Automatic annotation (TrEMBL):
Keywords: Cytoplasm, Transferase
Name by which UniProt lists this protein: Glutathione S-transferase
Family to which this protein belongs: Belongs to the GST superfamily.
Domain GST C-terminal: 94-225
EC number(s) given by UniProt: 2.5.1.18
Source species: Lolium perenne
Gene encoding the protein: GST
Catalyzed reaction equations: RX + glutathione = an S-substituted glutathione + a halide anion + H(+)
Subcellular location: Cytoplasm, Cytosol
Amino acid sequence: MASEKSSSDLTLLDFWVSPFGQRVRIALAEKSLPYEYVEEDLLAGKSDRLLQSNPVHKKIPVLLHGGKPVNESLIIVQYLDEAFPDTPSLLPADPYARAQARFWADYVDKKVYDCGSRLWKLKGEPQAQARAEMLEILKTLETELGDKEFFGGEHGFGFVDAAFAPFTPWFMSYEKYGEFKVAEVAPKIAAWAERVGKRESVAKSLYSPDKVYDHIGVLKKKYGIE
């Protein structure tokens, strides 16, 4: 089978706390694909290997498959579905359902990280605006989740779950800086976060909320944010 011949030739260039890299790790775990993990110390600088593998954006994660780079986390996850079709697919088979999954994963990509970053970077009115935006983001995602166990619905744990799950350890920091509680704003999202955190692929790929909070503290010092 294809994956048995080539899955051992996978290398992931990543940074430990990156939610974008973690979604790739979750996908690899869901598919039981072996790979070499290479930690990029982004706080110290970017390696030549990373810069050569992703010369356009110069960012992690980068998946090397047989030495060929695949960039951008959501593209990497889709690539894994296509390159290893004999492994569990994170995208549903139905074209419309696939389009919807891509839409919501893209929504997470464009909204959550940027808004969350503004919560801890900004003060005063700009921070208040970020807080209001985050509350709307969580409510919007809760509406999409509805009463489903996972965003994948009948498909089960899927593409959107893998995309969003890495942000759940950041919730505590968002709550502290934004002065709100996810469980009060979006209780179904809070319950989903608890469920998804118990999944083996997720649990082995993420770090604790305390470690994420400490990392934000390091970033605030690095960038001179009081």
